[in-house]
């Protein structure tokens, strides 16, 4: 499992740039083992890779998502650090899938999900959050999310959620 403290470390200030060599060894192993299997076909049979919008306020976690997705043939269409940016970027970029955190400044993820679904009822939003309370999961799914991945997560679980969203 990829634990948040393994990715972010004990430093409360997140690094702004990350290289593969800075990622924890456990993440390297997950990336190598995740390469085989059902979720490696990011295009879902399409002529282009599926485009993913990352919505996450923690820079290092965005870096991890970006690296994991691009390593498995997904195209990161854009990134947002709060719900307002997520709505604007969704409107402008029209991604195939959105990875959405819930706890963010300015506008939370559940509010952003509702607004994106108002714009596009067919939007495919996968929540990735450390909040694991059943009521929060239900709120996210009722708002329009199609899957919920709890942090800390296994890389294969994240990739499966994105792949399933692309195929939906």
Task: Please tell me about this protein's structure.
By secondary structure, this protein is α/β, with parallel strands linked by helices. The protein has one domain: Rossmann fold. The chain is 43% helix and 14% strand. It has helices at residues 4-8, 25-34, 59-70, 83-93, 109-119, 134-143, 155-167; strands at 51-55, 75-80, 97-100, 125-129, 147-150. It has a five-stranded parallel beta sheet with strand order 2-1-3-4-5, sandwiched between helices. β4 (125-129), α6 and β5 (147-150) form a beta-alpha-beta unit. α4 (83-93) packs parallel to α5 (109-119). It is globular and about 30 Å long. It starts with a helix and ends with a helix.
Shape call: globular
Tell me the span between the first and last alpha carbons: 26 Å
CATH superfamily: Response regulator
Helix segment tally: 7
The tally of domains stands at 1
Unreliable spans? 1-21, 25-47
Structure classification? alpha/beta
CATH fold label: Rossmann fold
CATH architecture: 3-Layer(aba) Sandwich
Mean pLDDT across residues: 80
Give the radius of gyration. Answer: 15 Å
